[in-house]
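Final report, closing paragraph on structural work. Over the funding period we assembled a curated collection of sequence-structure pairs, and we close with a single example.
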Amino acid sequence: QVQLVESGGGLVQAGGSLRLSCAASESIFKFNFMGWHRQAPGKQRELVAAISSGGNTAVADSVKGRFTISRDNAKNTVYLQMNSLKPEDTAVYYCAAAYYKDYNYWGQGTQVTVSS
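Its predicted structure, as stored:
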C-alpha cells in the first residue's frame, strides 16, 4: 500500500506563497501521473495540477500562471508551488498517484487558508 503524506499547508495572506510537498513511501517513477487536487467547503474536489512520469505538466485555468507542479524522483516527492494566493484558493489540498488514468492512492490532505 503506497502512502502519500502532504505537508506545507497553513495560513497565508492574499498575495503570499506556499509550497506543498507530497512524500511517497515508494518510488513515484512507477506512476503515470501524480496530481494535486483541492476541495473547498461545499464544493466538489477539483484537479489543480498534474505531472506525468516524463515531466509533462498541466494546471487548471484557475491557477495557471500562479501554481507550478514539479517532482523529484530521487526523493519520491512531488511539489506544488503556489504564488499570488487568493482567498478562493482556500481548500484542503490532496496529493494523489495514478498508475494509468484514475488516481489509485490519496494522501490525507493539508489545509491551505488564504486570508483577505
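The longest strand covers residues 91-98. The chain has no helices and eleven strands. We thank the funder for supporting this effort.
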